[in-house]
Amino acid sequence: MIGAAFSLLLLAPPAAAFGLASNPPAIRVPHLPSIMMRAASRQPLRMMASATPAGGGGANEVLEAEQSRQVSISVFAVLAAAFLNLLGFTMMLGFTPALGSHFNLRIGARFGSLTSAYPVGMLAGVFIWPAVSDRVGRVPVLALSLAGSGVGLAAQSLALVCGWPLEAFLGLRVLTGSCAGASPIGKAYLADMGSCKGKLPTYLSWRDAAGTMAFIVGPALSGQIFRVVSLKRTVSTSLATVIGTAAFGSLLAAALVALLATEVDKIVVEAARESTTPAPPVKLIACPLGVSLVAGVVSVCIVSGLKDFGASAFDAFFAVLLKQRVGLDTRSISLAYSGLNCLSLSVSTLMASRCIRLLGPVLACCTGLALISLGLLGVGATVATGTGLLDPSAQLAFWASVVLYQVGVPLFGPTVPTMLLQCVPPNRRGTVMGIDNAINTVARVIAPLVLGMLYASAGAGACFKVASIVVACSAIMCAFRRLIVMRS
């Protein structure tokens, strides 16, 4: 609980950026008590248009301020939920070797199944949940998806405590993944709001910043929990406690969304009815990677999928390299993840949206992919020879390559939803983000298995070099598609 409170405090900067501690924006929505009463009774939200008589200028200003504050609260709730939900993933980043030891697994395909089982379930989740949110509404579907993830994580924790076999644990990870619709739905919600306010790249950059914050807090928090619990309990109990804490975070995220978030379409429609000036129409622009909408969406999704395939090498085996080639223990690995992700958070908050505005989403995307590819190539080159600990000069090159990777990921992150969501109608954004996530999920399922076999047969160097080539192909395709569109 203390960790969750600390996590929410870290979301204060994005909260201030959305007006929670400054001047409120101009869009008007209902006040918080009304939201909570309606949520409890499951009745549709209605604006308080009749609450203020005509000519009541002072009362109108108070109402506008209260309604504007609710817009900020809604965005903050979605960002906080994204952060808390991602804790379930980031808290386990440094514990893949420990899980492998718990189930007596060697490096290879079965070891890679620990990271690929969750994406298998996501294949269903990212298709179903976002599409339903296009029809039912973002808020209730987002809250239900988060709650399902929390229950699934709690079941995984129970499986470790009870000593269930690997197959049962992997099955629970698949079921948990089937509830993983929060990411595309949350991005679609922020795109709906950002399109109305002209802040689409900014909101999506803050979404990536919230995710990066989870990458900072998650490993550090899980490392501390693991250290404290392992002093008096077994390793299995310590792992179960870490996963149980992540489950609490997802359930808390579901509660935040259910109580605080407001449907964007209701905000916009009702605010337009009360306003004396007509609301601007929704602006859609052509996708920068395709002359037609379908070609553009497919191109962006393939670029994103290739990147995720290559990045899976880092996600699955970086902790193993830190243990075997750098000599870090479990707690030190968690702290290393947190330190590296502090760098990514700085890039997300200070550079990502500015880079998109200055360079455009395509060039920003290619820049991020190039840095990711160079980082993976550098890691592969430094660990290509030998199997023992790296010497000081090799460690310096290793960490420099890791820094390149950590800078490239947040630069690339917001470019894909920016390219996709600015050219898609609002009632299709959830579906499109679901398709993108489905392609990424296929990459995350296949990559750990393929790269795991390559790691076992040819070594870590070959594994990371192949991953670098795949990401480089993604950058080349992005640039090539843009040239075709410009010539057309």
Walk me through this protein's architecture.
- The protein is an all-alpha fold and 488 residues long.
- Helix content is 79%, strand content 0%.
- It has 19 helices and no strands.
- Helix 4 packs antiparallel against helix 9, helix 15 packs antiparallel against helix 17 and helix 18 packs antiparallel against helix 19.
- The longest helix has 34 residues.
- It is found in: Membrane.
- GO terms for molecular function: transmembrane transporter activity.
- This is Major facilitator superfamily (MFS) profile domain-containing protein.
List the helices and strands and how they pair.
Blueprint: H1 2-9, H2 12-17, H3 32-41, H4 57-90, H5 96-102, H6 109-136, H7 138-162, H8 166-177, H9 182-197, H10 200-230, H11 235-260, H12 264-274, H13 293-326, H14 330-359, H15 361-382, H16 392-412, H17 415-421, H18 429-458, H19 460-487
Membrane topology: Multi-pass membrane protein
Domain Major facilitator superfamily (MFS) profile: 74-488
Signal peptide: 1-17
